[in-house]
Amino acid sequence: MFKQLASIFSISLTMLFTTAVWAEDLTDVNVIINQATLAAYYQGDDGRSEARMVIEDAQGRKQQRQFTILRRDHEDGGDQQFLVVFSRPADVRNTVFLVEKHAQGDDDRWLYLPGLDLVKRISAGDKRTSFVGSHYFYEDVSGRNSDDDNHRLIETTEKYYLVENTPKDANSVEFSRYQVWIEKVSMLPVKIEYYDSSDKLYRRVEVLGTKEVQGIPTVTKSRVSDLISGASTTMEFRFIRYDMGMESSVFSERSLRNPPRQWLKRPE
């Protein structure tokens, strides 16, 4: 509760004293990245939302996915747990994605495939591959470790911080660099553009909608675009709730085959 009130108070001060805040722009890129990570991935102590995903290929053909995301933080900026349970369409129903995200070191990821009754461990090398056939990557869902990149603040505008990021291990990813636009007021990353080894822009992630939920700025709609093929995936988030009091046991391997129905129910 204190954390939530502090967030509301902070946002109110930002709105009241916008000029003063902008007069004292952040200059330390690591502080900017850390605040953006907290704003995007650490809202509240835990959270749940229902996502509707529309995958559109270059010919305009569409597929849909629906799933519920549960999240629990061990501490702000630290380890996290994620559970993603699919409900539609029928061919992915009851597919479950479990993540143990480690602030220091590689994340642990598992995927349960109900048709095969198989739990598949996703290796660290697969984190930048397609998430259930969409244009989102596994890493987009749970977040990229900021320690994997070098960061440089290249521009500060009236509304945004523009940060350029280059991977420390160039052989571990498909991009050579990416740029992030971070909104000053909310500190939410609102656009990310990826460049390949030829320095050609090929992928874009952008926020299409936000709102305050329990006083916390929250993304409600986003899109990933493949700028080479023209295909894209759009995702909308509904029934969002924070600080529900989830226990760590909700995110055990047992939940892959037996998802926690109590937390998957829509909040009243």
List keywords for this structure.
268 residues; alpha+beta; outer membrane lipoprotein receptor (LolB), chain A; 13-stranded antiparallel sheet; globular
Summarize the model shown:
By secondary structure, the chain is of the alpha+beta class. 18% of the residues lie in helices and 43% in strands. Pfam families: LolA_like (PF17131).
The helix content, as a percent range, equals 10-25%
Tally of separate domains = 1
Strand content: 35-45%
CATH architect. name: Clam
Radius of gyration: 18 Å
Main sheet makeup: 13 strands, antiparallel
SSE pattern: HHHEEEEEEHEEEEEEEHH
In CATH's first tier, which class applies? Mainly Beta
Low-pLDDT sequence parts: 1-23
| Number of E strands | 13
What is the mean predicted local confidence, pLDDT? 90
CATH topology category name: outer membrane lipoprotein receptor (LolB), chain A
CATH homologous superfamily (4th level) name = Lipoprotein localisation LolA/LolB/LppX
- Straight-line N-to-C gap: 19 Å
Helix count?
6
Q: Biggest sheet, strands in spatial order?
A: 6-5-4-3-2-1-13-12-11-10-9-8-7
Q: What is the molecular shape? A: globular
SS-based structural class?
alpha+beta
InterPro entries: LolA/LolB/LppX, TP_0789-like
Signal peptide: 1-23
Subunit structure: Monomer.
Keywords: Protein transport, Signal, Transport
Please, could you describe this protein's structure?
This protein has helices spanning 2-16, 18-23, 29-41, 138-142, 254-257, 261-264; strands at 46-56, 62-73, 80-88, 96-101, 108-113, 118-122, 149-156, 160-167, 177-183, 189-195, 201-213, 216-226, 232-242. By secondary structure, the protein is α+β, with helices and mostly antiparallel strands. The chain has one domain (29-258): Lipoprotein localisation LolA/LolB/LppX (outer membrane lipoprotein receptor (LolB), chain A). Strands 6-5-4-3-2-1-13-12-11-10-9-8-7 form a 13-stranded antiparallel β-sheet. A hairpin with a 5-residue loop joins strand 9 (177-183) and strand 10. The radius of gyration is 18 Å and the shape is globular. The two termini are 19 Å apart.
